[in-house]
UniProtKB/TrEMBL annotation, chain A:
Residues 15-52 form the F-box domain. InterPro entries: F-box-like_dom_sf, F-box_AtFBL13-like, F-box_dom, FBL15-like. PANTHER family: OS07G0130000 PROTEIN (PTHR34709:SF72), OS10G0396666 PROTEIN (PTHR34709). This is F-box domain-containing protein. The lineage of its organism: Eukaryota, Viridiplantae, Streptophyta, Embryophyta, Tracheophyta.
Automatic annotation (TrEMBL), chain B:
It comes from the Eukaryota. Involved in ubiquitination and subsequent proteasomal degradation of target proteins. Together with CUL1, RBX1 and a F-box protein, it forms a SCF E3 ubiquitin ligase complex. The functional specificity of this complex depends on the type of F-box protein. In the SCF complex, it serves as an adapter that links the F-box protein to CUL1. The keyword Repressor does not apply. GO terms for biological process: jasmonic acid mediated signaling pathway; protein ubiquitination; ubiquitin-dependent protein catabolic process. The keyword Cytoplasm does not apply. Residues 136-182 form the SKP1 component dimerisation domain. This is SKP1-like protein. Residues 1-21 are annotated as: Disordered. Pathway: Protein modification; protein ubiquitination. Belongs to the SKP1 family.
Amino acid sequence: MGTDQQFDAAAAAGVDRITDLPDDVLHMILARLPSTTDAARTSVLSRRWRRVWAGVPALSFRYHESPSSSSAQQVYQLDRIDAALSGHAATATVDVERLEIAVPYGVPGRPRRPVAALRLAAPQRRAPARRAPL
Amino acid sequence: MEVDKGKGEAEETRKVAEADRDTVTLKSSDGKLFEVSKEAAARLSTVLAGMIAGGSIDDNGTDLKQIGSEALENVVDYCNKHANSIPSAALISSSISFNTAPFKEPEEWERKFVDRLSHDALFDLVEAANFLGMERLLDVTCHKISEMMKGKSPDQIREVFNIKNDYTKEELEEIRQELAWAFYDD
């Protein structure tokens, strides 16, 4: 267990150690990736990974802006954050405890869309549907 | 008689041990014994803290059947190093919420500590940390694993971790469409 020699043997045998970790631990690993986008991409790894990302109770999005970004590209990035928040709300298995959206501030001419993303984020936990009394 | 003499010696050592019992003895699944500072064990592991408080620590070696000797050696090593290098206040502040508290970056020595581990030893240590409720060690090892994923394509991640892709092509396409916001080309 753990020596380099044994590791080589394990690697040669193609032993998958990460997939057997409990969900809680996988959530901790995914939460440490740079953004929720990276976490969500792990859903294609294998069936076991399909919805692991949706159990991470922390969401993090970084809005990148390069000098060459056109205003259309910027809007597109924010649309993706909106889509991500909706997507997470639709599949999430936990309540979101932390939401982080990093957007550069005070760039002239940038559309004032971040607000839209935040508005969308706020009511993600839908109120329980009202049911007619039996 | 030999037996009596042996017993007397054992008595002697036990008395000494009881006098300054500031360590606990842990026993790995393969029967090896490790000593660790009681203070560090209680501070770093919720499970060991509970056992110490509950008096279920065995002076002859508390059985940890789920943990092999190599992983346990790393756990003990980590506890000892931790006891020497980090003020306990730094730890307490990081324990607000297990999954979501903004992470405290690993210290330089913690980084080195996990960097020297083989792939298997790293995963053995994650499992041990999880089993023992060692939040900070779990933090540090999970950080290391996330670094192994960072900036890699799904194919590369599968390769690093030997993950077998059991999806059909159609299923993969479906996921990519559902999560279009995550699969874009800039």
